[in-house]
What we know:
By secondary structure, this protein is mostly helical. It has helices at 10-18, 23-33, 38-42, 50-62, 84-87, 90-103, 119-124, 126-141; strands at residues 66-71, 74-82. The chain has one domain: Orthogonal Bundle (Arc Repressor Mutant, subunit A), CATH 1.10.10. The chain is built from eight helices and two strands; from the N terminus they run ααααββαααα. Strands 1-2 form a two-stranded antiparallel sheet.
Amino acid sequence: xxxxxxxxxxxxxxxxxxxxxxxxxxxxxxxxxxxxxxxxxxxxxxxxxxxxxxxxxxxxxxxxxxxxxxxxxxxxxxxxxxxxxxxxxxxxxxxxxxxxxxxxxxxxxxxxxxxxxxxxxxxxxxxxxxxxxxxxxxxxxxxxxxx
Length: 147
């Protein structure tokens, strides 16, 4: 993998990987909506183009943010699973949702949270909510598909 970082700043380096228009959307869909297949992602409301989706999944694989496996009952179909490195982005996703709800609602009147997120629960115990999301993700995806 070639070095794709612009500089040595940790924030800028993180944005070099997850700061594009689509990467955090894919990770959000994995964490909150349990999307796992190329088809799942391509059918998202955000309407990501298949060439962009393919490119982002490849990059996430290269940086070991996700891993690719075959479905146990259909060896032709790939599934994508977040690694611990990918799951460590859960607080970023939740903080962006909280920030958006508190700061963009006046500019975006139809702003709606992902149905699986209860904002009151998040605000009352953000760390507990994040831990619950991570544990639920692991139970759904890591038991059958161990790391």
